[in-house]
Amino acid sequence: MPNTDNIEIRSEEVQEIIGTPPAKIIRIGITVIFALAAFLFIGSFFFKYPDIITARVTVKGSNPPAEIRARTNGKITDLFVRNKQKVKNGQIIAIIENTCNYSDLLKLKNNVKIIKKNLSDFEFFILNYNFSDNYRLGEIQNIYSALIREMKEYKDFIELDYHDKKVAAYKKQVKALQKYMINIKSQVNLSKKDLILSEKQFKRDSDLYKKDFLSPADYENSESKVIQKKNIFEMRQSALSNVEIRITEAEQNILETELDKVNQKRTYESKISETLSNLNAQIRLWEQSYLLISPVNGIVNFISYQAKNQNVTSGETVFTIVPEHSSKLVGYAEIPLSGSGKVKNGQNVNIKFDDYPDTQFGMVRAKIKDVSLVQSNKFYLATLSFPDSLITNYKINLHFKQNMQGNADIITEDLPLAARIINPIKRLFYEKF
Question: What is the reported pTM?
Answer without folding.
Answer: 0.58
